[in-house]
Amino acid sequence: MGCTPSMLLDHKSRRRDSTGSQEAALAKVAPTPVCNKAVQAARAPRASLESDGFSIQLSSKKDSYVSQMGNNFATQLHIKRISGSSGGSPGARAGRRSSLALTPEDEPLVDVANRSPPPSYIPSALLYAPPEPLELLCVFPERASRVCAAASAAASRVGGEARTVRGLRETLELLRRDVDPRLPHVVVIDARQPQSLDAIALARAIRGIKNTQHIILIAVVKKSAYLKDDFAVLPFLEAGYNRVMVETLGATAWCAEMLQARSAATAARAQIGAVAALAAAADRSRDLVAVTDDQQRILLTNKSWCRVLGWRVEEGPRPFTETAGGEALRLASSGARDWEAPVTLRRRAAPDPILLPCRGAAVALTRSTSHVVFVCEPTNAMDGERGRGSLHSIRRGSLDVRSVASDGLRRTSLAKLQGLPLEAPITKVITLLSAATEGAPPSTVACIERAVDMLRTSELYSPQMKDEPKLRVEDPIATDLIGALLSQGPTNIISSRRSSNDSTVVRQTNRTNIKHKTSGQLRELLDTALTWDFEIFRLEDMTRGRPLTHLGLTLMGQRFDLCGTLECDERTLANWLTTIETNYRPKNSYHNSTHAADVLQAVAFFLEKERLKCLLEPLEAAAALVAAAAHDVDHPGTSSAFLCNSLDPLAILYNDVSVLESHHAALTFKLTLSDDRVNIFKNLDREMFKTIRHNVIDMILATEMTKHYEHLAKFVNVFYATSGGSKEDGLQADVSKTDEPLSLDTTALSLPENLVLVKRMMIKCADVSNASRPQKFAFEWAKRIADEYFLQTDEEKAKDLPVVMPMFDRATCSIPRSQIGFIDYIIMDMMEAWAAFIDMPELVSHARSNHQRWRELDEAGVTTIAEVMRAQRQYALQSTPSNTTTTTQPTAEE
Ligand SMILES: Nc1ncnc2c1ncn2[C@@H]1O[C@@H]2COP(=O)(O)O[C@H]2[C@H]1O
Question: What are the residue boundaries of the PDEase domain, all occurrences included (predicted)?
Fold first, then answer.
């Protein structure tokens, strides 16, 4: 916060000088009803208030005061300085309640500007730190690093201890353990291989953690990199390193480095401890304390300041002049070293400023001022109203409820509520926004009020379909689809009961007559399992509808060594995959084990991306793969809404809430734990099991589409800096206006609590990645999902249930339109955010080109599955050979 002990405590450096006293001798203060004491004084024929250092005289008459109070109050307050010792009687001073007295009781206050003080004195006792054995933390991705061994050996030689971790997350977890008494003094970080460890990001992340300023950070760099550039150390220093060291194995060099680092760490710890102590003292003071830099930017304000003025500490520095004005500021900026003058302070929640006596001091460790301290004393009138020495409202309603509540005296029920130590972030946000309306132009107030109204609803992440006339009016199919995907529970829709020529005959997908291919061919196919155009439907055919087991063994078993991470054998993994696969229903055209294999493949593909490799631990990667494979297990081929409407036992069991996803997650664990031969988790200890269970459940539940916008909005809000453009209600319906590059907030990556958003987004994108696959796959998936929707509509009609998506009637539905809507409203924003995050632009380009093709088909009047497939066959024939890769995918018209 830029606050040093000298700022607050040093009174010895003050010199008394009368220069400038004239300037402040009679301050004309803005006509303001000052305080109750002032009011009392005004009611007396002639009144004078004296507080430390000030004499306040009211020259107005009682009547004029009363009549104009609160509006155009013309009373002038004359605030006089009391020069020398004469003004401040010992009694008056003794009665002063300031807990942060800048002036000792036995010294008279002087209203002088002291223009040539010696540098501020820092009490050495405050900077004393007992020697401690060195705690060293080495962050080296390479466990066997010899440089790391040399550093650790040096730490022992100087009587310390060393620990080693390998990466960013381990380091941050260790440093975040607030209670760990072994917080390191020194952290040595291997900066030689940026591809293994991003040392710059790590330093930034460490410095972002509370109470780590005293830790000495040393970057170990390659000699070549160091010699190449005179300024090579700069990025490291800017990121928060204290030192940069060229890699060495030399024991003497490391020993010297460790000794220097220990002494620097001890000194830093003492200094920062002292600053923290003084900040804590300021926070406990009833005076309003602010510290600025020499440009009058606020660096520190104490709690009283924030409470009285309606500020939040975390709002950060801002120009002091936004809040404060008056003589005090003029004196502070004139270069005076030590002064007393009135200050006017503007409050957030009240239109009128308050006037307080203020003591100020400039702090300098050299000849120039580094900090200016303002200590404003609550007036006697405030105390009078409050009855005990803490801050309070000068006038009714002048302080916010929180400050009333916090003093514990006015025990209104509201105050009690507000005084509770619990406060939801949304309450804070609403309070801040409401405060921001003060003095704002009417249009801004209207905007903020609308925003606050929206925030008060519980459905923050549910997009409002009604506000999208374009979607509703022009595209009933998209309305149907998106509405059904995003709404939970039983349907309110009264079925439109469109007539359909279709019978309710289930159209089974023809699985073709291709014989089961040799293991050689299968092997060859599985070798391409980590490509984005992986032939999933060929795998379905070759494995006769058991793609999940085969792909799972390849990806989970071989590529990601799940058996190593979970300490299970391959047989158990194979059994698990078979069990899960058997519990998918092959009769579903879309939600079968091929979809599970497809999602598993997408997750595996994502996990191979650098960003995720750095972020996720092996156990988290394993959880993601398990969740992907099992995320739709036992899907009935109908939606949750259908289950609710038909009072299905699952809907009864899960109370119409997240019915399908709850079932998939619960069944996954039921199947897994029911038999040791299947239980891939059986060798995990309790903690690891808890972690993986939590991860798997969370990821499966994240696939629920009713939470789509919630997950997407949270991810975007956390990882991307907000841009100027607003997306009203979170919906973006135009894929053509999405060319602006998204800028990633890398610091958000270092916070473990944000990882959950990444994992959710990963499985969500995998779940609907079919629309971002190359065209031939995307079209086959579109056909399959439409088939499944049509069957649901058939069944709803047959059973006289509400029809969840009436437009999905095979006789009338336009497949291209449904896909255009799906890409516009579900896919595009999400894939853009995810593609930028993992650096996979093809997710967006495939979605765009699929969108384009669907539009062409729509414009050509193509609607049914059969027409789509016919048009696509012709299209493939006309296209270049590279676009006509043969697949074994079934055709639609069987
Ligand atoms: N290509 C698509 N067109 C329309 N809806 C889709 C498409 N792909 C996935 N979905 C829907 O998105 C949902 C994602 O979750 P589910 O797998 O439960 O069910 C999926 C389908 O209802």
Answer: 514-861
